[in-house]
Automatic annotation (TrEMBL), chains A, B:
The keyword Lipid biosynthesis does not apply. Residues 164-266 form the Acyl-CoA oxidase/dehydrogenase middle domain. Residues 41-158 form the Acyl-CoA dehydrogenase/oxidase N-terminal domain. It comes from the Bacteria. This is Acyl-CoA dehydrogenase. It holds the Pfam family Acyl-CoA_dh_N. Belongs to the acyl-CoA dehydrogenase family. It comes from Actinokineospora bangkokensis. The keyword Oxidoreductase applies. Keywords: FAD, Flavoprotein, Oxidoreductase.
Length: 600, 600
């Protein structure tokens, strides 16, 4: 069982929150006026304790003893419930939500930091809470007052849990093709019929009820995504007092058995197939959320939050793997310096070898970069919500739009790469189930898939986000990066070198983006959107590292020297990867579009 | 259970063996005079059948029902033994060995092709045979006639199995630090005392006996690797007639439980700890192989073969994953073309999407490139053994030296990347244990670790192989690649473009190599040896693809058009990655060497 210090680095979290993001400064704003740095620290300490004492303790057992399908029920490990109860009891489910619905009204950036601790400790258990929080946020934003009272409040209390039900067996990435139908009953309710697939937390008995948010089509609506509506479909119906009553017709059809992330049930759910007949009638009872046919837009509220959340989870898994491999590299003696291999001398710790240092620096640059990125997104959400001017709030919203696909995909790709390196640092030991890192690697492999695959995020970034609002989101991002580069150039020395490198890569990215946007054929324009996503991600994370470099200043402590070293690593080893990617994009390469599939 | 056509592509194997490597032409040589293309084809067909019918059938069960430690014994899945018996019965264990020791005297390149089929079908089961073959080859080359008669012949018959015992708990990559000691008894035998770790196939009851090849130190010898000797230590001693008799003091202390590759037992073995007392005396009975203190050189005979074998296994796992994801992409309908998303139209197969094609082409370029590379190494071994002139044989030997670290590492890195893409093409389904690709990914993750990690291979290539024989090995490689580039330039058209690109990358590689070799400080020179290995690997595989491009010519069939498309992909998407890597190497970057580990 790892110590709290092996989940995330406390000094790094404090550096990012306070030195870089000035989170303490948020307490000057009305929304956060009840808080102080002391309350933030107390919250983070409590998170660390719960993560270490309730989550990390059963991380491996959650993997080995994965949820079972028994008598139509999903049985999860007995330690999952108490861990989630501890999160609820501490108020973390509503950490960033309004006090009036039962939240703590903490800044989102603090909640993100909390989430990272839980995910680092046990992502399989944390996912239940993560989904409940996203569900509650969506319903609070788009649901009726009655829906908030009946479903959100019990979720924040930890009595109910939440899910999001989008995919179906024949419709994963292609939501236009969902076929679950919702028939209006004329009494304000609908009855749902269909099958949902890949539903995380889709069934279990951890609380009194499960609040499913379900995408479905009302017959007669427009085809494709324009005909999608959103419904609350509770596992158990509520009586007039909000007490759990009759079973709704949502039935567990089976569980998927995954390579990793095994602690989270992943369910196939049948809606309205007759396992139950609530009120004696066929169909699962659902309550429309918001307007008919506007379901996808509402669900994107949750999806966008979930995407940054996926990035947070990926960062957390990468981060704990890094710390564990660092500990291993410091304590495991193996081999001798290449200059002077005297077998009479004792072996040296792994960390003395240049290649091991490279693997550690790479991990550090990925995981601290990813954590900084998702915290920055949390900070943007706080800006969007509480900044003084309309313009500042709008700018934060635009930045969040353009950064969301990157905050989802970059950590998913590179913190998985970090876990791969964590295994490699451990050598053969890392490949065994005696060490944690192999599980982190398996767990993290989910992240490039769920909540929109890597390919989907690439199309979102290049096809939509960089073009939205007349290019305003991209312009806001460019301005943000340029401003930092300018500060760095003004600072002189190594900062100026890094600033110039960022300017160069950003300039090339913008040039290539403009060239792509002038390509009339969308097939060609988007053919390499995944590479565009990767290149843009590396440029953004170079900015994240330059920000940290500047924040570290010339501080001589290990933390600040380490920030400078990791920034240096990122600019020397990582940012140059974008050169060939952007050249390929600029060439509007048609290798894939011209391919005859018979040649494969 | 996959069809044989989902293991490796028959038409590709034939293209590589006959069109590219002219393996049929080998039958003109005395060693292979008994063979013909027909016998090669018959051998390959038999391999395919055994792989599909005996190996693939229990690949998943080998994973789920991994070997158990029970009563001091390792119990493997019941289908492993019959599969290995089928391999032995077909004579494949001695496929490339001399007829006089019981081999089939086939070309090594044909044996490599056979091995790839078995590994693609079930790498966990195949590993037992793979180790036995390597063991038998080593003993045949370095053992006495008596050792060959008593141990090699029964191995080729499938009655005995073989292992290699190098690592110890405190000495993995650092063989200088092994502490197992071998005390001479004065009667020509030694008694061994020590612990060996990570021993694949280290214990089981698949045959009558296990022949361990064990590195140990004779007391009083030189320190470090210069004091290492090699011993045969059978699990059961043999009587004068070669029949299995008394149990030797080799005891199974435990099994490692791995993330993948689970079908192969991975054992901790105790030698001479008193579990048995053969002849009433302490110590495990061992027989010196070759000369005292020359053990490491002899073991490298097996290690080099094993390294190419690891590359072959990695290629095979990547290859079958590619074929399975291709099949999935052709049959699974999801989404619509980005130009014209009409929800009234049916969904299109995944293979219609540019990003999926990119993932398939990337896999194709990795797995067919890797298979071609390891077959080429097999062909070099045949050249080394049978080429007409001393000069040709020496040249083949040099090429094999310099290519071995690449043939080990490049497939291990990129065919694992291929398996990652195979999962991604499958979407969520690929992350479940209902599909094969997640297991291939877990299995393949071992390959960058065992038989010398990625880091060790990098140091071998940059520190030793490129400098050996006054640079003759590197020069032979450069000449090989240049000659192909020149042919391509002479061919004009697209071939000339690719030839020019290869020339450019090769020139840069050689320039950077020369610069590195002039750096006096080995710590700095070798600091980025892993990146050197990666860059050199991509240059070599670009050559492999150019060779295939030229071999395909302007043939209009799908196979040849596909070879051209994959070569195009590799030159456009992959080879440019080497630019920033080589620039970093040229800069003799000191980011890692100057790092204070306290900053991590």
């Amino acid at each position: 069982m790892p110590a709290p210090s092996q989940l995330l680095s406390r000094r790094d979290v404090e550096f990012l929150l306070y030195d870089w993001l000035d989170v303490a400064g948020l307490t000057a704003r009305k929304r956060f006026a009840e808080h102080s740095r002391e309350t933030f620290d107390a919250v983070l300490d409590l998170c660390r304790d719960i993560a270490a004492e309730r989550f990390a303790t059963h991380n491996r057992r959650n993997d080995v003893e994965e949820p079972r399908f028994a008598d139509g029920r999903a049985v999860v490990h007995e330690e999952v419930g108490p861990a989630l109860d501890a999160v609820a009891a501490a108020g973390f489910l509503g950490a960033a939500m309004d006090a009036e619905v039962g939240g703590l009204q903490l800044p989102q950036v603090v909640q993100t930091a909390c989430a990272a601790h839980f995910a680092a400790a046990n992502v399989g258990t944390w996912a239940y809470a993560f989904l409940t929080i996203g569900n509650a946020n969506l319903l609070t934003a788009h649901g009726s007052t009655e829906q908030v009272d009946r479903f959100v409040r019990p979720m924040l209390e930890g009595r109910f849990h939440g899910t999001m039900c989008l995919s179906e067996p024949q419709a994963g990435s292609s939501l236009a093709d969902i076929t679950t139908r919702a028939e209006p009953r004329g009494d304000g309710t609908h009855r749902l019929f269909g099958n949902k697939m890949w539903i995380s937390g889709g069934d279990h008995e951890l609380g009194e009820n499960i609040v499913h948010l379900v995408l479905a089509k009302v017959p007669g609506g427009p085809p494709g995504v324009k005909g999608i509506s959103l419904f609350v479909v509770p596992k158990f119906l509520l009586d007039a007092d909000g007490e759990v009553g009759e079973r709704n017709d949502v039935a567990l059809a089976g569980l998927n058995h995954k390579m990793g992330y095994r602690g989270t049930t992943n369910a196939l759910l049948n809606f309205g197939e007759g396992a139950h007949t609530p009120g004696g009638e066929a169909g699962a009872v659902g309550y429309l959320v918001g307007q008919e046919n506007q379901g996808l837009a509402a669900m994107f509220h949750m999806m966008n939050e979930a995407r940054v959340g996926v990035g947070t989870g990926a960062a957390a898994l990468g981060y704990t793997g890094y710390l564990k491999s660092l500990e291993y590299a410091r304590t495991r003696a193996q081999g001798r310096p290449v200059a002077g291999k005297d077998p009479a001398q004792p072996q040296v710790p792994l960390v003395e070898h240049a290649d091991v240092r490279r693997m550690l620096l790479a991990q550090k640059s990925y995981v601290e970069g990813a954590l900084a990125l998702v915290l920055y997104c949390g900070r943007l959400l706080d800006e969007q919500r509480t900044a003084e001017s309309d313009a500042e709030r709008a700018r934060a919203g635009l930045l969040l739009e353009v950064l969301t696909p990157i905050a989802k995909s970059w950590p998913s790709q590179w913190c998985l790469a970090a876990n791969d390196l964590a295994i490699q640092v451990h050598g053969g030991y890392g490949y065994t189930r005696e060490y944690d890192v192999e599980q982190h690697y398996r767990d993290n492999r989910l992240n490039p898939i769920h909540e929109g695959t890597h390919g989907i995020q690439g199309i979102d970034l290049l096809g939509r986000k960089t073009a939205m609002a007349g290019g305003a989101a991209l312009a806001a991002l460019a301005e943000l990066l340029s401003a930092t580069a300018a500060r760095a150039r003004a600072a002189g020395g190594e900062a100026a070198e890094l600033g110039a490198a960022l300017d160069g890569s950003l300039g090339r990215l913008l040039e290539v983006t403009a060239a792509l946007h002038t390509e009339p054929d969308p097939t060609v324009r988007l053919a390499n959107a995944s590479l565009y996503l990767e290149a843009a991600g590396h440029v953004v994370v170079a900015w994240v590292w330059l920000e940290q470099f500047l924040t570290a200043g010339d501080g001589e402590d290990d933390l600040r020297a380490g920030k400078r070293a990791a920034a240096r690593y990122f600019f020397r080893y990582e940012l140059p990867r974008t050169g060939p990617q952007l050249d390929l994009l600029a060439a509007l390469d048609r290798t894939t579009t011209d391919l005859d599939p018979a040649w494969l």
